[in-house]
Amino acid sequence: MAKYAGSKLLYLATAAMGLGLANSQQASNFDVPTEVAESHSCDALCQQIIAQMNVLDLGTFGTNFDFDFYATAANFSESKPGDLLKLLPLRNSSAISNAPEGVTVYKFQYTSAAVDGAPVPVTGLIALPPAKNDSRSNLVAFAHGTTGLYRGCAPSTYTQLFNDDGWPRAVAAGYAVVVSDFAGLGNNYTEHLYLSKAQANDVYYSVLAAQKAFPQRLSPEWVSLGHSQGGGVTWQLSEHKLVQDASSGYLGGVALAPPTKLSDQFQSALRNIQSNSSTADQIQTFLTTIPPTTLGLQRYFPGDYDAPLLTEKVKERVELAGIGQLCLYALGGLMLDLTPNDVFLNLNNTDDSLMQKFQALNSPAQGDPAEKPLLVIHGSADILVSPQSSKASFDASCGYGNILHRTVYEGRDHGSVLKDSSTEWIQFIADRFAGKDFGSTCTESVVGGSEL
């Protein structure tokens, strides 16, 4: 499966150049000619939306993609998961202009493992706080939220790395942070397998590679932190066999606004639309998740997944995403002019057997043990990933004997909960490194409301 991407992405890249879409330093969000868009059921309004969303995406990911750095390292073929392949210091870059004084940032490339265990190159970032008396910095591994599914959508290409409410807060608190782009983002040896367990491998092996890059600067112990897609990754990682032994150095994790069981959440959203219990914002937000979900399943089940619930119009627009190499805003923007009846063949049909199979193979909270504590945080006003979904997975995991704490932040949405809960998750991280007891039972609390 790891090699599946090569020929397909090469074809798309070649097609893009042939259509005049390529810029020598641009790797995402290409302008698609009108006739190509129209042939993929994207009319004038659709094209206008995508053009507007492309501006937002390119403002985030930039147009100065370092193709040389993100190319697969020459020493990759002899490497094993956890090996360091490339290390590049970032200096005098606008991306780090807002970094706290004394912080140094590096891009790196390392070897991870695909879902089938095959080695795969991955890129990412390492941020080091100022050294204190030559002491080691405690290490946090950050798993990012959805940025897109194509190579130009990698977080390590952000035009402003420190304009972020996530991992930069951990750096400001004195932690070293390693950020995996996830396989398929940045480096394109393989495709990004959205929401799969492959990302848990990427986080684990990013830690090993970062520790090899800076053996005297980084602690052998580490904590994972993830938001949105990355929150689900952190939950997957907490149950990963690789971190159940104390020798891994893993101390615990924080899962913020985590998607857990894809099929269950998808079916719940459809049922809410059927029963007219969804708001317009909830419906539109749900529809924007259709392209990345469809692409992820197509890649996970290559040649087998035909998106049985979707109309041909939507399937054609999903193909357009690959031609334009659309990142987060434009990818979701493909759905913004559509209604549920435009998207689904039959709103009463929620049966997608391969989506259910994907959930069974990749979702956490299905009985695997987690030896270290997990903090789950969710906003009550989250309409992208429902708080009820993390509650169901929390209850299931506790039922299997794992020890978790779940905090609900009243009135916080999918994005704001990351910043507004930072005092709690930074304290959780500090407590893990201090060896403080997490307790022996699952607990829940509410911030801004009555106790559960």
Describe this entry's structure for a reader.
This protein has helices spanning 5-18, 34-38, 44-61, 67-70, 167-172, 198-213, 229-238, 262-274, 280-288, 290-300, 312-324, 328-333, 340-343, 353-362, 387-399, 416-420, 422-433, and strands spanning 84-90, 104-113, 119-128, 137-143, 176-180, 218-227, 250-256, 374-379, 404-409, 443-447. The chain has 452 residues and is an alpha/beta fold. It has one domain (1-452): Alpha/Beta hydrolase fold, catalytic domain (Rossmann fold, 3-Layer(aba) Sandwich), CATH 3.40.50. Residues 1-23 have low confidence and may be disordered. It has a ten-stranded mixed beta sheet with strand order 1-2-3-5-4-6-7-8-9-10, with helices on both faces. It is globular. α6 packs across α7 (229-238) and α10 packs across α11.
The DSSP helix count reads: 17
- CATH architecture identity: 3-Layer(aba) Sandwich
What is the CA-CA span between the terminal residues?
A: 44 Å
Number of beta-strand segments:
10
Order of helices and strands: HHHHEEEEHEHEHEHHHHHHHEHEHHE
Highlighted features:
452 residues, alpha/beta, Rossmann fold, 17 helices, disordered N terminus
